[in-house]
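Researcher: I've been going back and forth with a colleague about how Protein GlxC might be arranged in three dimensions. Neither of us has a model we trust, so I'd like an independent prediction. The organism is Mesorhizobium neociceri, in case that matters for your notes. Sequence below.
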Amino acid sequence: MPATKLSKAAQDHASRVFDLDVSSLRELNQALHNLTSGSNETAWEVVNPKGSHSVAVGVDQPVSIDVRGSVGYYCAGMNDGAAITVHGSAGPGVGENMMSGSIVIKGDASQYAGATGKGGLLVIEGNASSRCGISMKGIDIVVHGNIGHMSAFMAQSGNLVVLGDAGDALGDSIYEARLFVRGKVESLGADCIAKEMRPEHIELLQGLLDRAGVTGVKPSEFKRYGSARTLYNFNIDNADAY
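Model: Here is an independent structure prediction for Protein GlxC. You can compare it with whatever you and your colleague have in mind.
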């Protein structure tokens, strides 16, 4: 397959600005994938995203990317080391399968934000829709607002911090992820229970709040939720909970 020919904007290393009214999304992602270790192209700006899908996916270098506007689905998926900020809202699947780095959404996020994420920090400064953190595997997620139903479903590891309220069936079939909710929880899912906030959890939560830029909020205002560990192995007595 011949190499993709990049536009003038893609080749303009001095500005590092991509206007998606001028250049294609393919050109943007190709330029980001072409980055190598030690590159001096460390700051990127994307303008006129206009809800484009799959913006800045698969970035594997420690660069900063500012997206000036809202994006569609799967923005910043598989991020591995970049610091990506969306100055708007994000569609479904933002940060899916993130490995490391950080993603900040200045607005709201649609469903399954941070799904299957294995590392890094996802901050949503607005609200997150349903299934936030589904099957999370080590990612840290901090939501300044509320989250929707079935969030942290089958969450294996990592931390989900919610400054607002949580919808129905929080943590359904959860494994060993830690959930911290400051507001009201509509209901807990199967095998998810309230747990004691011990000193190590206070320290952990304070660190997450600091990393997410949250001020004026105390860890003592949160409740912790996690696995009751009754569904790890099938037991006929628990059949109704599966």
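Researcher: What would you highlight for our discussion?
Model: I'd start with this: The helical segments are 8-11, 25-33, 199-211. After that, consider the following. Residues 1-14 have pLDDT under 50 and may be disordered.
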